[in-house]
Amino acid sequence: MDYSKNKRQNKKLIMGFLVAVFLLIFHQPNTVLAAEELYGHQLLAENDTLALFFKEENLSIIIQDKETGAIMESTLRDELDDGSSNQTWLGYMKSGVVLNVIDKTNDTLQADLINNPNTIEISYIENGFLAQIYFTDYEFGLDLQVTLEDDGMKVLIPDSSIVENSDRYYIGSISPYPMLGYSYLDEKEGYMFVPDGNGALIYLDDKDGRYASGFSQMVYSDDIGFKDSEIESLFWGRFQTVTDSEKVLAPIFGMVHTSEEFGYLGIIESGQERASIEAHPNGANIAYNRTFAKFIMRKVYVQPTSKSSSGSYQLVEEDRSHYDISLRYIFVNKNQANYASLAVCYRNYLLENNLISKKEDQYSTRVDFLGSEREEFLVFKKTVAMTTTSQVKEIYERLQSQGVERVFSLYKGWQAGGLYSLPITSFQTDSSLGSKADFISLIQESKDKNYQLFLYQDALRINPDENNTTFHVVKRINKRQFEEFTYQDVYERFLYLTPSRSEYLLDKIAKQYKKNGIENVALGGISNQLYSYTYGGKIYSRSDTMNQYASLTTELEDTLNLVLDQPFSYLWNHTEAFLNMPTGSSSYIFVDEEIPFLSIVLKGLMPVYSEYVNFEANKEEFFLNLVEMGMYPSFYITYEDSSDLIYTNSSNIYSSRFETYEEEIIEYDQKLRQLNQQLEGAYIKNHEKISDTLVKVSYDNGIVIYVNYGKEATTIDGITVEGLDFKVGETNE
User: Fold this and answer.
1) For the whole model, what pTM was predicted?
2) Dist CA 215 CA 196 (whole Å)
3) Is residue 110 assigned to a domain?
4) Across the beta sheet with 60-65, what order do the strands follow?
5) How confident is the model at residue 38 (pLDDT cuts 50, 70, 90)?
6) What CATH number is given to the structural domain containing 638?
């Protein structure tokens, strides 16, 4: 619907008048009435806590906290321009939406509402507006809808509204409100939250131009469909020393102005499968701190001319991404303006939207077993048996005799051919470990002891040395087969199964599991990889892959007890436990503090198990991490000495023998079981870093945990905590 300027102004005045009358009658005593105008923005909508202001020319918005008067601005005000930025960056900072433009194969252009000719038709809707935007020079456009809702603000760009009418210019990416909540240098105290690993903060202090860029990571991992694995292998080779970065496990980000006691949590509700989280500190191109979500529409990729030739040329994806772009911003104020409250907001959001359900959460120590491996031996590969079924029984009996009440275990490498005999296509056990009847007996006897044993299955990878890989394997967008290199001698590479093949094999083996009384299955691979690919001449998007993985785990849930290895958030509702939660982040140089954000979100919702204790260098600190984060410990165990693995693909397991870790497992179990019995089913409601070495964690059942990472004793709230130790207290609330 097309409104004239006068009609728009009249409607705004009438709406503003009606809102003002309503608030005069019904507003709460501690709530202030919003002004009609703020920095050239007109009042558009308000609820009990927030006011939304809007400026038509550049679709700029301001969110104001009505209780404190604090604001979050989305664009740079003209009077704040210090003259240090060029016209392109000024356009970026002053536009409500910014697009990356692909000109044939050049993807460095920008479209914004300041520098590029455009038309905007605005319709006012309930509690917000709808803007129909068209860039006349690039011949593409989209609709941007913003509404103020009870719990915050929603931004929507419907897929059906995106149009591209040029055969030269395409939309590369879309960034709605990339400056929302920005701050200049160190004018405000606070931080940006990024979902790197468990969570991390980038402070809003003056970075003195130290960093050329900031955090920029795809939600749910990089897309291997556009990743050239051969180049990586040539660069790093077998002497790779740089560890992989942690993955973004959930589509969230945040900004908190602690000095003004105002902040928000951003949640990507739709489009997360091809979005990146951006958080750039001042000095990275401009002197402003900003965090936002960027949605990928198309990418430019390299297409080799032939298998044998080194020649190549660039192409643009033939079709763009198809999903609604939907963002929700949940705002916090006053003493809730902190990262712990953002985590609580996300937990509540997941529960209220049925994206997660509360699982049984009784404490268990996780003890995983490596069954068998393979090493080169003359012409054939030789079996290396590390932990047989009878040895697992012996380990369980020893643990139970010493008071370990509950154990949660994955049995890896149980299948015929050993750990890397992939994919698993049938319930055939490795004869070096015991018969099929031995496995079934072990699982049943373990269940009677309150020891849960899960058969582990990598449902993504296929070993080309052991299988025909002509069909059902993933090719990248350039139609070249994707290869994952191991930098090991026995099996140098793996390929990825197509989602359809994974689904077929899982359905097949699930029936065999049930037939043999197997109920507990742990899945890896498909739980934390997402990619585009080609197969049979057709291109499949990350959306296709995500939907298929979600569907197959839903089906498996109906027949099996399913746990997932470090699952992405879209699968959290399909797992009984979270395996291998990181305790930290990727430790990027611009990160100022690591926080247990995801631990706060998930503690009390499901069992959360750590990465393996026996691979941690600082055991004392790691144990305190588990206490602080409410995580359960994990050990990777073999009955035989790990030196037997030196000529296998598991040669990186340098210490795993049960006899070495028996006392440590028992000690962890005793201390953490006693602690977590007091926390069963409770949620973390606050997490405070009192000093560089002291942390205070508050639960909603009144329990408070003090963790002292320092070497000296310290006293807090009348409680003395010894060095490198923790204490449990209670609140008076």
Assistant:
1) 0.93
2) 9
3) no
4) 37-38, 41-46, 50-55, 60-65, 71-73
5) very high
6) 3.20.20.80
